[in-house]
Design a protein that fits this description.
With 761 residues, this protein is mainly β. The chain contains five helices and 36 strands. Keywords: Cell outer membrane, Ion transport, Iron, Iron transport, Membrane, Receptor, Signal, TonB box, Transmembrane, Transmembrane beta strand, Transport.
Length: 761
């Protein structure tokens, strides 16, 4: 499979064609919108009401959370579409920069590199706990937000809400849906490093209660901070809705996204604070200085292609004003294949032809992946409000049937040549992916049932609780190409040629997971409350049931006879609606204890005696300070540590890696007058400890950093406005993520700008 090399001119033409298509579609829509506007110039009934804050939606879009956010006994951060638009955000990882302590801090292990939305939250990898409309979204890809209404971040165990998930939280992306109006929102953006992006959001009502919505996206850019790193993506998301405003509603959605990116293996950490040469023979590296953070250590063959296809059908029926049932069926498939070349670490990987450090070479490793992830699910949810005597009930219950499948295709290994440490030459070709017939197949079938209830005991006091039971069955088989060398090599059967696929694993496993939560809330006033919450969340050892089944019952950290990992979270907090209930203030103390963590024994076997703890507090403010001033801010202090078991942080402390102790985020926007608006913000990420392994001389941690962004907006007319976003305005040089061994890191993006023209009808 060869890399598709397109010239900037050809890609520019493709984006121009896409933009032209958007304009072509929008022309009749604009005309019709103008006609509708003229028709509405008749007598109008004016009703004065408080406009809701665009920065504080007030309610989760997931029906499992039936209470307003102010009365939900959990730490939930909702990033609405308006914030994404004001910041010029177009992907999930950047959107999550609005949530303190959450981010892509981990760059991969040894020679392997993380790709896509590799998110850490409260000391734990949360990449497998990303959902779209409450349904698991599997795949290590970067998720665009062109079809996203809002992003909801739930901190603390989410097993009761979604089943098998990370012990410290989950992320739920809410998709845009048709609505009963006709209008168009389009944008065209240009920016640093030849950034070009165009989007179209067109909604058309037809009939008395039906609507069609179409979202389109095209983007092409170079990475301003990294030579040779490019990204290209296109997306289309049509949707239909029938029965809007009636008791029976049907929604049909389709999403297609294709990406052609250059993956980034990072930059050597030579010269960073805390770095020292791995041995005496390479001691010259101690004084040789940092490498240029723009350097690209991959090859011309490197690529990362992915295709996402998702089909969703949801039916809703209102039995009454207080009872609604929803049934959702979704099929989704994410195909991804990539070739990612990254430098290796350690003294044995450095070639020294002479004493001149400028001539030294570093070995490289080619990371190869050819994978297909599929999910098929049917979920039924019912929500109802009713009274039993003097006690009010707010119930959400449901059942889910899900099949997840993953196929990893075996490919022949590639050996890239070494690369100069300070002056890398990436203009080489090492070939492409070539399947060798081997593969690994995993299937997990899950049946889940859950029920939640909020009891209004008195006007001021509420109790809430819920329980979920998941039964899962996983089957796994794999075949390995024989005749290779090194770890995991399989000998060829007598008479079989090299690379013959040989079945090495054929196993299955089953299990049950029980998760529950319990909370209480007391309204101190009409505007404020205090609450407590306690929750239990479980997941199989290793967190991934495919890996669980692959390991079997042998000597493995993911043995099938191990108990599920269990997380217990306690939270006490308070939430207040102020400024005419348009500004939500929240404060919470939390503690999560993770039990049954698998640890390696001195004799090489494994046992479940490890425990971890993450505790701290979080403060947030979202909404409007006044009619012209909007804000979204948060601060967290978190102590994440190993209570019992092996040290996982390279600095020798008990701290969990990739977890900033302090994190702060702020974004606010002010409307100066009818035409001008300004915005700006800053975020702080404290220093990170990296993971521990046999690395020598590399930094054990990264330094904390501040980054500031700004925005100016100008309205040309009621239908057209411009906005200029400037990111990292002080051009701060910082480490955004570091790999486990500390030999490589990803630099933060330098100062860039984005100019966007928005059209609204």
């Amino acid at each position: 499979m060869e890399k598709n090399n397109t010239t900037p001119f050809s890609s520019f033409n493709s984006l121009t064609l896409f933009t032209g298509l958007c304009i072509g579609i929008s022309s009749p829509v604009i005309a019709q919108a103008a006609e509708n506007t003229n028709k509405k110039q008749d007598d109008t009934l004016v009703i004065e009401a408080q406009v809701p804050s665009l920065y504080s939606p007030g309610q989760s879009a997931d029906p499992k959370f039936t209470r307003p956010l102010v009365d939900t006994t959990r730490t939930i951060t909702v990033i609405p579409k308006q914030v994404l638009n004001d910041q010029g955000v177009n992907n999930l990882t950047d959107a999550l920069k609005n949530v303190p302590g959450v981010g892509a801090f981990y760059a991969g292990e040894n020679g392997s590199s993380s790709t896509g939305d590799a998110i850490y939250m409260r000391g734990v990898d949360t990449s497998n706990s990303i959902y779209v409309d409450g349904i698991r979204d599997i795949g290590s890809v970067s998720r665009d937000t062109f079809n996203t209404e809002q992003v909801e971040v739930i901190k603390g165990p989410s097993g009761t809400d979604y089943g098998r998930s990370a012990p410290t939280g989950s992320i739920n992306m809410i998709s845009k849906q048709p609505r009963m109006d006709t209008g168009i929102d389009a944008s065209a953006s240009v920016g640093s490093a030849w950034f070009r992006r165009s989007t179209l959001d067109y909604n058309q009502a037809f009939g008395e209660n039906s609507a069609f919505r179409l979202n389109l996206m095209g983007e092409k850019t170079h990475d301003a901070s990294r030579d040779s790193v490019q990204n290209e993506r296109y997306g289309v998301a049509p949707s239909l809705a029938f029965g809007l405003g009636t008791s029976n509603r049907l929604f049909l959605n389709y999403l297609h996204v294709t990406q052609h990116n250059t993956p980034d293996g990072g930059v050597p950490t030579i010269g960073l604070p805390g770095y020292s040469a791995p041995n005496a023979a390479t001691s010259a590296l101690n004084a040789s200085g940092k490498v240029n953070s723009h350097n690209f250590y991959g090859t011309d063959s490197d690529y990362d292609d992915s295709t996402t296809d998702t089909v969703t059908m949801r039916f809703e029926h209102d039995f009454s004003d207080s009872t609604t049932i929803r049934n959702t069926t979704r099929w989704s498939q994410i195909k991804q294949d990539y070739l990612l070349t990254a430098v290796m670490g350690g003294a044995t990987n450095i070639t020294q032809p002479n004493a001149n450090v400028g001539s030294w070479q570093w070995s490289r490793l080619a990371n190869l992946k050819d994978v297909s992830n599929r999910i098929l699910t049917n979920q039924t949810n019912i929500t109802s409000k009713f009274q039993t005597g003097s006690v009010g009930h707010d119930v959400s219950a449901g059942v889910e049937f899900t099949r997840e499948q993953q196929t990893n295709y075996g490919v022949n290994a590639l050996t890239p040549p070494s690369v100069n440490i300070y002056h890398p030459n990436s203009n080489i070709s090492i070939g492409g992916l070539d399947r060798n017939g081997a593969n690994a197949n995993g299937t997990t079938d899950t049946v889940g049932i859950y029920a939640f209830d909020t009891l209004q005991v008195t006007q001021s006091f509420e109790l809430n609780g819920g329980i979920r039971l998941d039964n899962y069955h996983t089957s796994y088989d794999s075949a390995t190409a024989c005749g290779a060398t090194g770890r995991g090599a399989v000998a060829c059967p007598v008479g079989a040629p090299k690379n013959t696929p040989v079945t090495t694993v054929d196993t299955n496993t089953s299990g049950n997971l029980v998760n529950w939560k319990l909370g209480a809330l007391y309204h101190l006033t009409e505007n404020g409350n205090v609450y407590v919450n306690y929750a239990i969340s479980q997941q199989p050892p290793g967190g991934n049931t495919f890996a669980l089944a692959a390991s079997g019952t042998g000597n493995s950290a993911n043995r099938t006879d191990f108990k599920p990992q269990k997380a217990k979270t306690s939270e006490i907090g308070t939430k207040w609606e102020v400024m005419d209930k348009r500004l939500l203030l929240a404060a919470a103390l939390f503690r999560t204890d993770i039990e049954n963590d698998v640890e390696a024994n001195d004799d090489g076997t494994y046992s479940q005696y490890g425990t971890k703890r993450v505790q701290g507090y979080e403060l947030t403010a979202t909404g409007n300070i006044n009619s012209a001033w909007q804000i979204m801010a948060g601060y967290t202090q978190q102590h994440a540590s190993v209570r019992q078991g092996a040290i996982v942080s390279s600095d020798g402390s008990s701290s969990l890696a990739y977890t900033p102790k302090h994190a702060f985020t702020l974004w606010n926007q002010y409307q100066i007058n009818d035409d001008w608006s300004v915005g700006g913000g800053a975020r702080y990420v404290g220093g990170l400890s990296r993971g521990t392994d046999g690395a020598v001389g590399t930094p054990t941690s990264t330094e904390g950093y501040w980054v500031a962004d700004a925005k100016a907006g100008y309205r040309i007319s009621r239908n057209v406005d411009l906005q200029l976003n400037v990111y990292n305005i002080f051009n701060k040089d910082y480490v955004a993520s570091i790999n486990k061994s500390g030999y490589r890191y990803h630099p933060g993006e330098e100062r860039t700008f984005l100019l966007t023209a928005n059209v609204h009808f």
